[in-house]
Write a structure and sequence with these properties.
Order of helices and strands: HHHEEHEHHEEHHHHHEHHEHH
Structural class: alpha+beta
Shape: globular
Distance between the termini: 28 Å
Number of helices: 15
Largest sheet: 5 strands, mixed
Number of strands: 7
Bound molecules: zinc ion
Length: about 500
């Protein structure tokens, strides 16, 4: 129980306590990957690779001699839905290393943390009702995160003695970032430059990105050219309104790096959803499927999509394709994939690649708009497939491949946007998330160009499984007494976490 300014002490599972519990049950090794009892084989290698990207992290001064006992830790925060649609903030932690991802090839030496029950791969810290931190006690969320921050600092500086294979060993913890969607990063990081600052009046823009000055005067956010102005502004100007609660935790010298862009919201619920929605509507613009009305054409497209998914054994969650699913109420709207499951975006993009490739191959006369759309889908799919084949670290070849596919996607998408604009159609919108994708591709390109042997797989910052975890914790909160929702949710979580399979 901790004091975060509420009328009663607030329940919290301290990270140190959870580490002791894991050690007691012989599960500590899950933090450096399954099948590796001894962390010495993994952790020094992890930090050697990490150092190539983040040499300024304080861990390299403080812990140089015991990297083999230094565990990397990521925080995640997001809101779930409690009783009566009340928002519930759920804070948890995890290791980036886990049991892998279903699509990986072979056995990566450090698998991603996607597979397995999310209750066994993520660990709850606390929950806090949105109405409490927004209205009743403003600042209580920051106070809660401050307690987490002081725990992280303590575990970094002094470590904790834990049981490992019958011996007491001192372990240390190094925080390597906050995972979460853009609104969470903005809230917890006290960021003043973020997505919601996008404005048509770029002359007076505050900036849309905490990593660079994109969106300010003279710094176009969607510039994909090699000499784009935003690239020269990366990590040059602090994005913080004032220091956030995590600012005191030992970290990298440019603190904005710790607020991690999430590929799931950037791609599946961002750029690739825009691509999928626009390409589907584009097919109806060309009248390439059967059916008279727009709804009937969407119906035909859904039948083709369903058949594609069945044939290729691709999971598909949506049960229909409607105007709502693509957020397209009228022809002057920009369509975007708004289906409930983000994973469906990958299924639709796979289908679109096949459909457009087949159609374009039958054309007697070239159609550059259709060709760009086809290439956009091919490269979006190639980008994801490359990342999903690997573990926490991409080998050089995969990094180069992802960088090239990403760059091709960005270029083709802008071509589509231009063709649509020329035709007077609202398709292929350029959103702030396109800028995030520019950062992903830029980071991969820099790594590939410098021939770095291993590069951070952005999927390690992806929140799919974290959202699953948040959903489960929120479900618990809906089943407990509303008057003591914080205490009972945490207590039931502790009971459930060991019993779930
Ligand atoms: Zn930026």
């Amino acid at each position: 129980m901790v004091d975060i300014g509420l009328s009663k002490p607030h329940p919290m599972v301290r990270i140190g306590d959870m580490l002791e519990t894991l050690a007691l049950h012989g599960k500590l090794h899950s933090l450096w990957g399954p099948g590796q009892q001894d962390p010495s084989a993994v952790l020094p290698k992890f930090w050697r690779r990490y150092r190539q990207e983040h040499p300024s992290h304080q861990l390299f001064d403080r812990h140089r001699t015991h990297l083999h006992r230094l565990i990397p830790l990521q925080l995640h925060m997001d809101e779930g839905e409690s009783l009566k649609n009340a928002g519930l903030m759920v804070a948890s932690w995890q290791s980036p290393i886990g049991a892998g991802v279903a699509t990986q090839e072979g056995e990566p030496d450090m698998p991603l943390n996607y597979l397995g029950n999310s209750f066994k791969t993520r660990y709850l810290i606390s929950v806090l009702l949105k109405r409490v931190y927004l209205k009743t006690v403003k600042g209580s969320l920051d106070k809660l995160v401050s307690v987490v921050a002081s725990d992280l600092t303590q575990l970094f500086e002094h470590g904790i003695e834990l049981d490992l294979a019958g011996r007491r060993e001192r372990f240390y913890i190094a925080w390597i970032g906050l995972k979460g969607d853009w609104p969470i990063q903005q809230k917890v990081g006290h960021l003043q430059r973020h997505f919601a600052r996008a404005t048509k009046d770029e002359e007076h823009g505050v900036g849309v990105c905490h990593l660079c000055l994109a969106g300010q005067a003279g710094v176009p956010m969607h510039d994909l050219s090699r000499r784009a102005a935003w690239k020269d502004t990366i990590l040059t100007t602090s994005p913080f309104r004032n220091p956030g609660p995590l600012s005191g935790v030992p970290q990298t010298s440019s603190q904005e790096v710790m607020f991690r862009f999430d590929p799931f919201h950037t791609l599946h619920k961002g750029c690739f959803a825009e691509l999928a929605g626009s390409a589907l509507v584009m097919i109806t613009d060309y009248g390439l499927v059967e059916g008279g009305s727009f709804a009937a054409q969407l119906g035909s497209l859904y039948d083709l999509l369903w058949a594609y998914c069945k044939r290729t054994k691709t999971p598909l969650h949506m049960e229909a394709l409607t105007r709502n699913q693509i957020n397209f109420k009228r022809d002057s709207d920009y369509p975007t994939g708004s289906w409930f499951k983000g994973a469906d975006t990958a299924a639709v993009c796979g289908f679109l690649e096949e459909f457009l490739t087949t159609h374009v191959s039958t054309l007697v006369q070239k159609d550059p708009y259709l060709e760009s759309a086809r290439d956009c889908c091919i490269n979006a799919n190639m980008f994801l497939k490359t990342l999903y084949r690997h573990g926490v670290w991409l080998p050089l070849e995969a990094c180069s491949q992802a960088a090239q596919a990403g760059l091709n996607f960005l270029r083709c998408y802008q071509e589509c946007a231009q063709y649509a604009f020329n035709a007077g159609k609202t398709r292929y919108k350029l959103q702030p998330k396109y800028h995030t994708m520019l950062h992903f591709v830029h980071a991969l390109t820099v790594a590939a160009t410098s021939e770095r042997k291993w590069t951070w797989n952005i999927l390690a910052d992806g929140v799919q499984m974290d959202e699953d975890f948040v959903g489960k914790v929120a479900a618990i909160s809906r089943a407990v007494n509303v008057r003591s929702v914080h205490a009972q949710t945490v207590s039931r979580y502790l009971t459930n976490m060991w019993s779930e399979e």
